[in-house]
From TrEMBL:
One of its GO terms (molecular function) is UDP-glycosyltransferase activity. This is Glycosyltransferase. Keywords: Glycosyltransferase, Transferase. Belongs to the UDP-glycosyltransferase family. InterPro entries: UDP_glucos_trans, UDP_glycos_trans_CS. It comes from the Eukaryota. Its EC number is 2.4.1.-. The keyword Ligase does not apply.
Length: 475
């Protein structure tokens, strides 16, 4: 590394949903802006997908990955501790490890970027006098909610879920009570307090990078930049907002594995891909209804299945990929695999999602609406059936269906009730077979173009990332 080369350290929390966008951001900065990147990845050792991903990504271009060893937090949590709280605690306990890595660096980073769960590193950045930025890997709308929630906390009495009116974030579209992000659902839960703190920590950074783009969320981005009431919570007066997305993994298909070979044999845009992110799980009853609904739809589909869980819908989050053992799939309806053998491919636990969504046979994606999955779908022009499960996914689902018109949803919210087989079959057929489905696909393709424009030279996200790099250089 020559001494004039910028050095940026990026801190990532565990989980594929966090590691993926951090690695993509690191690659972008290293490849296109000649920046030396050090990623401090807080690991858990419990996810085979995560371990594999880190192994493959290390040493590429100017990227060095330093794993921050997992810390035992079992004495700080119990079975009721939500994933949001667990992640905040994991990061808190890893702070000494992060500090010592930064302290020992011979070339101190010119900037520190932290992911959504790593804002507690703020004092470390301040101690070493390093400019500090958050990478918010989802929408501008969820960012507005995160930073403004400290005001809601003071203004709202009682539970948010009991409110009669939607929540009004200044300058942004209103947030329906049904769509409120999980951490705000129960005020007495520790994750509520952690979420409010996270929003306050966000406001103390020097700027925020968001994985969205101007055309996608023009109104909200404008509010984040100019709305006095919304900006009044920010501690830095010139607080910059950098919409740099959609950053996502791109892959070259080097080997045509079983799934790709199966897709090769299908008709153009005829297959529905069904997957619920790195850790989403369904209840046993919902799993049965989904299997029946997919079978009755008689559409071709690829389904990434993992064993049902009657606990939280994100219960596999820190264990994604599992041990990749081909399970007995005994939780699927009797005879399902035999009856559907000509229309479906079942992938246990983990699939190469980016490759699948890029395949021309895929014409729809039933998704939990995690933001990485969402942009992987949209940047391939694939329309979606939204099935939000946890975190901020209900907000994403509403934006995709009601605002952008690139997705449809079952009439019942999966987080509230079991979606029955007839409803599922109807929704799948609507997307894959009807005129309405075709119109939605057209809109998804337009959004793909809009994303490409934003990222291309002179596009809004391209300019935004250049501005960010300039900002670090001038500090
Ligand atoms: N993913 C994958 N294969 C799977 C499940 C997930 O490659 O079987 C990847 C997916 O492509 C995405 C990430 O894991 O990049 C999941 O992130 P997302 O934000 O969609 O959801 P989360 O897992 O954080 O809920």
């Amino acid at each position: 590394m020559d001494s004039s080369q910028l050095h940026v350290a990026i801190v990532s929390s565990p989980g594929m949903g966090h590691l993926v966008p951090i690695l993509v951001l690191g690659n972008q900065l290293a490849s296109y802006h000649n920046i030396k990147i050090t990623i401090l990845a807080i690991t858990t050792n419990s996810s085979s997908a995560e371990t594999e991903f880190l192994k493959k990504s290390n040493g590429k271009k100017s990227i060095e990955i330093i794993p921050i060893p997992s810390v035992d937090i079992s004495h700080l949590i119990d079975s009721s501790t939500k994933i949001f709280t667990r992640l905040r605690i994991l990061v808190r306990e890893a702070l000494p490890g992060i500090r010592s890595v930064i302290a020992s660096m011979t070339h101190r980073p010119d900037a520190l970027i932290v992911d959504i769960f790593c804002t507690q590193t703020l004092p470390i950045a301040e101690e070493f006098n390093i400019p500090k930025y958050v990478y918010h890997p989802t929408t501008a709308w969820t960012l507005a909610l995160a930073i403004y929630s400290q005001v809601f906390d003071k203004e709202i009495e009682g539970e948010y879920v009991d409110l009669k009116e939607p929540l009004k974030i200044p300058g942004c579209k209103a947030l329906r009570v049904d769509d409120v992000a999980d951490p705000l659902l129960v005020r007495s839960d520790q994750q509520y307090e952690e979420y409010i703190k996270l929003g306050m920590e966000y406001a103390s950074f020097d700027g925020i990078l968001i994985n969205t783009w101007e055309d996608l969320e023009a109104e909200t981005i404008k509010a984040l930049r100019n709305n006095d009431k919304l900006r009044s919570v920010l501690k830095v007066p010139d607080f910059p907002i950098y919409p740099i997305g959609p950053l996502r993994r791109t892959v070259e298909i080097t080997e045509r594995d079983e799934v790709i070979q199966w897709l090769d044999k299908q008709n153009h845009e005829s297959v529905l891909f069904v997957s619920f992110g790195s850790g989403g799980t369904l209840s046993s009853q919902q799993m049965i209804e989904l299997a029946w609904g997919l079978e009755l739809s008689q559409q071709k589909f690829v389904w990434v299945v993992r064993p049902p869980s009657d606990g939280d819908a994100d219960s596999a989050y820190l264990n994604s990929g599992g041990n990749n053992i081909r399970g007995t799939l005994e939780y699927l309806p009797e005879g399902f695999l035999t009856r559907t053998k000509d229309i479906c491919l079942i992938v246990p636990m983990w699939a190469k999602q980016v490759e699948i969504l890029a395949h021309s046979s895929v014409g729809g994606f039933m998704s939990h609406c995690g933001w990485n999955s969402t942009i992987e779908s949209l940047t391939n022009g694939v329309p979606m059936i939204v099935w939000p499960l946890h975190a901020e996914q209900k907000m994403n689902a509403t934006m995709l269906t009601e605002e952008l018109g690139v997705a449809i949803r079952p009439a019942i919210l999966p987080t509230k009730k079991i979606v029955k087989r007839d409803e599922i079959q109807g929704t799948v057929r609507m997307l894959m077979q009807t005129r309405e489905g075709k119109d939605i696909r057209e809109k998804a393709k337009k959004l793909k173009m809009s994303a490409e424009n934003a990222l291309s030279e002179g596009g809004s996200s391209y300019n935004s990332i250049c501005e960010f790099v300039k900002d670090i250089r001038t500090r």
